[in-house]
Amino acid sequence: MAAGGACTQALFGRCRGNEPQAAEMGPRRLLLRYFPPGIILEYVEGGELKTRSIDLLDLSPHTDVIALVEEIQKEEPLITASCKEHVIRLVQRLQEKLGEKEDHKFYLFKVLRAHILPLTNVAFNKSGSCFITGSYDRTCKVWDTASGEELHTLEGHKNVVYAIAFNNPYGDKIATGSFDKTCKLWSTETGKCYHTFRGHTAEIGHSAEIVALSFNTTGDRIITGSFDCTVGVWDVVTGRMLHVLIGHRGEISSAQFNWDCSLIVTGSMDKTCMLWNATTGAHIATLTGHSDEIMDVCFDYAGQRIATASADGSGRVYNAETKKCIAKLEGHGGEISKICFNPKGNRILTASSDKTARLWDAATGHCLQILEGHTDEIFSCAFNYKGNIIITGSKDNTCRVWH
Whole-angstrom Cα distance, residue 287 to residue 56? Predict the structure, then answer.
């Protein structure tokens, strides 16, 4: 995984040991990734600069750091004896970040009037420096977050652009899904269309509108969810459909990969959420409990929890391993159309037809803040990578940026 794009900070601790394997590989530096917790190794092999990630998804403020680093050393030859103290300090930094107390209140920063026709979705790039909007006007627009300036209009779909996504953490590509039954891949920098995913020869692609899509974190796969009740898994480079996930009995509303790209979660109008093996396409589990259609699903950054939003007006949080419901989010006065974790995983944001967005404690399900001001239902919301900016999109035809 070329994980350098996922790093928040480079810590220039050079590791120069006498260990023959490490010397041959040429360790250069270690980089810290806060969300999800991890360390990126930058090294030279055969004269070429490469990166490799050590994911610390189970790290907590109570983890025994020295024991953890000793375990890492056994598995990773690049972590030499001369690096050990430096790695311990890095893991302690990650622990401190996880243990930080938060009581951040969000306030309205900017209101943007985006499209002539109603909006359908909003999404940030990793840094939050720009965001995209989809619309019934058949376009996707790229915006500068700070200035509110329109950077590009992505035109080419023959119907409503409903699903949109950046290939974060890289952010150099945008995918759009449309009611015209196709998904398109675009350049963020130029606005040029690279490819249209329609299906090939044996595969016919989707037979109904595409309403959900998501990249995996390595950027080489896209999943698309459709009103035809199926989810397509696509190869970004070749444009080929790799798997079709069949099992839901209602239209697909949402689909997402977990961090390590091993699982896919899908939500459906059949009131269930399903877990799938991302490599084989096999069905793993079905999560139930909602009394109405599931409008959105998501993983937290570590892939350990799943959140669901429903037309029954509630949200639920499930443990991804045990499949048990561990928290309920209750309080909205209408259906919840969008749900997402903040990068740290301790907050959840929801958007609702009651014209509000709400911020929740992910562990307890307690409502911490209500974001008010939109004059029509809110259908989309998102955090930036640092978790300190929120964007909401509404049928009142505005996006609101909250700091």
Answer: 26
